[in-house]
Specification:
The chain is an alpha+beta fold. It has two domains: 84 residues, Nucleic acid-binding proteins (OB fold (Dihydrolipoamide Acetyltransferase, E2P)); 142 residues, de novo design (two linked rop proteins) (Up-down Bundle), CATH 1.20.1440. Helices cover 31% and strands 29% of the residues. The chain has six helices and seven strands. The strands form two sheets. The chain has a five-stranded mixed beta barrel. Helix 1 packs antiparallel against helix 2 and helix 3 packs parallel to helix 6.
């Protein structure tokens, strides 16, 4: 069978036999697994390219299809793995590490059912910028908001940022509350709602552009608690 040559991010690693690892990668084409033979031994040429929190170029020789109770995925032999971006700052900070680990766990679960280039792009963006802003609490929070909202979008559960609970267009001068159960905006005729047009504009931007642009928006701090609440 042909080889898979692609960029990849490690989702999980499992020790196998005496010196090997089974590595599950996220690629632009979906989820791929392979045996990294000898990866746990000294001087392994594969070890550096299968570290957590790095972007690598890999080659997987397709050998067979491994099926488990929960998934069916490509399972072959990893013949090459070279790191091209290592997000080392993430592992130096406990909060950033926990956040990034949670991202990868969620991606690992969803890729058992969905294959999308958007998932790879989302994961790469969040790790890249979390590595840059790992000590910035507000930006870390914004990265988490961006990840949750766009993961929901890719999963087919995107929030509606154009219509309210009555299927009426969201109006610039109106205020709204957020219905946690229905995941929808509820208009407050008396203007007593906690969500105004500023929050809605930010949400629309988060769902329509890349993370780098969102992180450049100034004066977002007052809106972060509400954005986190909506993204939860």
């Amino acid at each position: 069978m042909s080889d898979i040559k692609t960029e990849a991010i490690v989702l999980k690693r499992v020790n196998y036999n005496e010196g090997d690892r089974i590595v599950t990668f996220l690629t632009p084409d979906g989820r791929v697994s392979g045996i990294a033979k000898g990866a746990r031994r000294e001087k392994s040429k594969l070890a550096g390219g299968i570290e957590m929190f790095c972007l690598s170029k890999i080659v997987v020789h397709q050998r067979d299809t491994k099926k488990t109770e929960s998934e069916s995925e490509q399972f072959g032999v990893l013949t090459s793995a070279k790191a091209i971006e290592f997000y080392q700052n993430i592992i130096s900070d406990l909060e950033a590490l926990e956040l990034a680990s949670n991202f990868l766990k969620q991606i690992s679960r969803i890729t058992q059912h969905i294959s999308s280039a958007e998932l790879f792009s989302l994961t790469r963006q969040t790790l890249y910028f979390l590595n840059q802003f790992y000590l910035d609490q507000n930006r870390r929070q914004l990265i988490a908001i961006y990840f949750k909202l766009n993961l929901a979008k890719i999963s087919g559960e995107e929030i509606n940022v154009f219509y309210d609970s009555n299927n009426q267009k969201l109006e610039p001068n109106a205020t709204y509350d957020w219905d946690d159960f229905e995941k929808v905006f509820v208009r407050r005729p008396d203007q007593s709602g906690s969500i105004d047009q500023n929050v809605i504009k930010i949400l629309r931007l988060i769902l329509s552009t890349n993370l780098g642009v969102v992180l450049k928006i100034k004066n977002l701090t007052p809106f972060l608690p509400m954005l986190s609440h909506i993204a939860a």
